[in-house]
Each structure stands twice: as structure tokens, then as C-alpha cells.
Amino acid sequence: MGENPPVVWPETDSIRQFDGLWWVAHTKSRNEKALAHDLMAKNISYFLPMTLRVHRHSHRTIKAMLPLFTGYLFFCGNEAARIELLKTNRVANLLEVKDQESLIHELVRFEQALRAGAPLTPHNYLQKGQWCRVIAGPLLGLEGIVVQTKGDTRLVLQINMLGQAASVEIDMVMIEPIEEPPPPSAPEPG
By percentage, how much of the chain surpasses pLDDT 70? Predict the structure, then answer.
């Protein structure tokens, strides 16, 4: 099972097209990709945001696609799909999504950035910040919080339910502030 699973299964224009309820699988350690392969075999819809990570070990450069949110996979389905997922023995905990529409809205932001080839990197989760919208380029319409780090500008995308975030580098001329931020929702205690 060395090869990477697709980020979205089955292939579709948008994860919004998936039928059923969304759940968050908190996987056992380092089981995200294996769980994705299991769900593919069972034809259960999922979203596993991944990013390319490069690190040096001895005199070698190692490149690997790793989950953007370590230990989490998002899946969509009915009660039978949920039971099949639990049978894989790869899940430590299953998080029920109380606000389905809010989670879908947040996940679609990540899906859009990944489909555009944006190199997302994990980022500290933010409670406050300036909400902005991208006004040009492949990330057109994407919304998030703008932060300045080490001389560059990054657009932070968040999953409030998990208290997790990732960011992508963005040019300041490509964004505009949004007057009214989306409705806040606090992370659930974990």
C-alpha cells in the first residue's frame, strides 16, 4: 500500500456532491492513508487533505505526501458506511458533525486550494484576524484569515470543529478584506 490515495474519493467536481452525513474520523497513529485505501475499497466517500513535505535525512532528500491534519480523515456516508469505517480498526474516535453545512463550507475551501495546486502548510489555529477573499488567480473566491509571517503573507484556512488550520502563501494584491466575517463557531472540546 505504498502509493498515496487520492485526496478526494470518488473523483468528483466538488465534495459538496457527496451524499450522506459528514463525519470526522480521528485515526489511530499514522493510519490516515491506510484508512483512505480501505474506504476506497468499500466505495465510501472521503476527503483527506494532503500536502507534499520535503525533509533531508543524512545525504538524501525525502519527499512524502502527508496528511495536512495529522490523525484526521473526513468521510461522508450513511449509517452503514459509518459501521464499515469502524470495522477497519483504524479509527481511534469518531467525531459527530453537528453543523454539517459549516464543516462542508470549511472543507470546500481546502478542496479549492488543493485542486488549484496551492502548497498548503500546517498553521497555528487563529481565533482572531482579518478575513479576506482572493480576488484574482487560481484561488479566486477563496476566503480565509490573512497573517504576516517571516516577511510573507499567508491566507489561513481553518476547520473550526477540530481547532486545526493550514495556510498558503498569497500576494497582498490578490486579496481584499471582507467586511463581515463568517459566523464564528468554537472548536469542540477534544
Answer: 91
DSSP helix/strand/coil, 171: coil
How open is the CA angle 9-111-184, to the nearest 5 degrees? 125
Say yes or no: 44 and 25 in one domain: yes
SS3 for 58? coil
pLDDT of res. 109: 96
- Domain termination residue (choose one: 30, 65, 97): 97
Report the Cα 167 to chain-centroid distance in Å. Answer: 11
Q: What Rg, from alpha-carbon coordinates, does the chain have?
A: 17
**CA 131 to CA 181: how far, in whole Å?**
6
CATH number at residue 86: 3.30.70
Take residue 36 and report the three cell numbers written for it. 483512505
